[in-house]
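Attaching the record inline, Q. Sequence:
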Amino acid sequence: MKIITFLTDFGMKSGYPAQMKGVVSSITNARYVDITHEISHHNIHEGAFVLCTSAPYFPIGTVHVAVVDPSVGTERRGIIVTTRSQILIGPDNGLLLPTAHFLGDFAVYEILNEKYMLSDVSNTFHGRDVFAPIAANIVNGVPFEEIGNRINDYIDLDFGEAKITSQAATGKIIYIDSFGNIITNIKGYQLSSILDYNNKNTVVIGGIKRRLPFVKSYSFVKKGQYLVTINSSNMIEIGINQGIAAKKLGVKSDDEIKILFD
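Structure, as predicted:
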């Protein structure tokens, strides 16, 4: 069975996610899955991270509809991104591109053909009126070329590259999860051969130096203690066992983090 997923910043109190699913259900019998509707409002980078870390676990042929769209109703384009294994649909604001790069061999099409949109497209809800019906029609077999033209001037986005030297790893915070854990853009494999488990290293975060242990998982430290670990997305993560690290440290996305190899 074909799958359509949804990722938005709409929240679950509104009827917006249900309206998108209603549109899809009226066009195709594909199964739909909610990745999340709790992306922080207008936070394109956060939506891009969650999509990029979720999409690889879906089967070949899955269609992802992602809508974090602060510029809805302007001249920004809607796009379809085809990749080696899956299809991404949403606004041309960088939201889809980290996932496209990760999945590989991607091409981008501008959404143009109004035939495959709802008959009355609003200025404020392209998730329902454009992206949801486009996804359903693609699942039904409509060719990409019939929906729009291939483009190369799309808006790209990445999470930046951490700098690794013989003395330190310098990166930034790219996501804070619902537990308050701090995910960085320092890839786990970059440090797995440098840091030793259960040893402490100096970490500079929130402008303050702290000596934190590098451990396999949260339970290797006592409740309330800080730690550094490699998370399930193979990124360096800083947290507190059963605590809210981001709140306690007063940090946010894009803040710098440095791990000294001492």
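The radius of gyration is 20 Å. Helices lie at 16-27, 44-54, 97-103, 126-139, 144-147, 188-191, 245-249.

More tomorrow.
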